[in-house]
């Protein structure tokens, strides 16, 4: 049995499929016949030439969009691709050992990795990212189609029939994207905390997931049976028959309850005494927008646009963005869609931003901070959002606002952009509201000043918590500090809610705690009425709130604010939860 962090609730019994990292132990493949050597070398050279051309156009485009220093990283990649010694090494492995171009490339890259491993730690990590990027690029030209390891795993499901559980050191955000509608039944990773983007995507798909399971990759082989319990972060490898049948029974109960809850889709969202709440969806793409409709979400409280960028090798232009946003709006009929401007950085990196060598990426050059230097990318996105505003109800949300100066700066850019669109005669939505994500403690503390300059706010509790407790939400060693049931977070939230109430400013909470039963009881008791969460949680939260009265929840919140430790808060709320609805406890994380 292995213990990690339960990051997406649910139980699954299934068969393991390992996702090897790019530099994983790929089996070497040889050419069937030496006569294939010249053609194989030709194929490799062609892939290199295509990669180099692609990188050259990137350098141009990124330099134009983001400035010359941002293009630096691609210049480095282009140099690596064009490196004559790389090419000579691959050629000689094909010629002398008759390896395929793909295997030869892997061997050479493993050699580089070994050299870099002897270099200083941070630099090594940075260089490894570049190496992985360069390999992926040449590989994608070699095989001419990018079949991700995740797609491969989905193929295994289709062929085998047994549920597939992905086991990986780490699922990169762009890989997590390709989870899409693939039939993956569970996820176990060595890295990552409960608010890592891979975890968030697992939740939005309702896939049970456990992360922070140290050493799991050396324990599990593809094909092993496994049990994943996403409620308490437990993973069983090669369980005995008894455990399997016991867990299969719980798995059935879990899914039955889930199916029953889906039936509340068309019921109004309100508490037992009739107080209305808005249950909104956090989405990343069209599949999520469909999922939101399926569970009866009242709108989109958070549309994380970075996933469009993460899945692109290149900067998506205004037209492409406009079309993407328009599609989301068309698929969320008559509902407000809150589009968040780019929130890259932290665990979401794209190569074209040229960010490198930051010792603390979560404390660094991320999100809106990037645009203070490079407003072009921001303005392009704002244009696309404003234009999409013609096709439905759109709100625009700015992440990671820390100071009033930053807010005034972005507000001014939006104002200028509206003016420019008007002058150019380009149609756009005139009534697009703008809002601030409150997720940096400085903004929460100075909330009164922020509220004077914004139409609405949305609390990003994932980041707010990690910055409040100074603990990286994706680092399993300290992730337990990122606890929503904490005295500090509830005190900060109470102040923010009170300020919003005084000024009549609409407030939503869109962090993960909006979909977790025990924290929701307190949030509702503190007066919050707009909750935005992964679509999969909406039926549970609707059922929960319908079983509690406003007075009850206010009493819980009042009591919680008197408590001084997370432990006390947790045990108090666990008892209340048990009284209100013992069946919904299944959907809670510990
Ligand atoms: C948050 O920080 O709570 C949030 C919703 O944003 P993200 O998780 O995308 O950083
Ligand atoms: Mg955030």
3D structure, described in words:
This protein is α/β, with parallel strands linked by helices and 590 residues long. It folds into three domains: 2-21 and 169-259, 3-Layer(bba) Sandwich (Glucose Oxidase, domain 1), CATH 3.50.30.10; 34-142, PtsI, HPr-binding domain (Enzyme I, Chain A, domain 2, Orthogonal Bundle), CATH 1.10.274; 275-587, Phosphoenolpyruvate-binding domains (TIM Barrel, Alpha-Beta Barrel). It has helices spanning 37-66, 72-82, 84-97, 101-117, 121-143, 149-160, 173-177, 197-204, 241-262, 286-294, 306-310, 318-330, 368-373, 375-388, 404-424, 441-445, 447-451, 461-468, 487-503, 517-525, 538-546, 550-560, 566-580, and strands at residues 2-3, 5-8, 11-19, 164-168, 186-189, 209-211, 225-229, 234-237, 278-283, 300-304, 336-340, 393-398, 433-438, 456-459, 507-509, 530-533. The strands form two sheets. An eight-stranded mixed sheet has the order 1-8-7-3-4-5-6-2. The chain has an eight-stranded parallel sheet with strand order 15-14-13-12-11-10-9-16. Helix 15 (404-424) links the parallel strand 12 (393-398) and strand 13 (433-438). Helix 1 (37-66) runs antiparallel to helix 2 (72-82), helix 3 (84-97) packs across helix 4 (101-117) and helix 20 crosses helix 21. The structure holds phosphoenolpyruvate and magnesium ion (MG). Phosphoenolpyruvate is lined by residues 195, 302, 304, 343, 439, 460-463, 510-511. Phosphoenolpyruvate binds at residues 195, 302, 304, 343, 439, 460-463, 510-511.
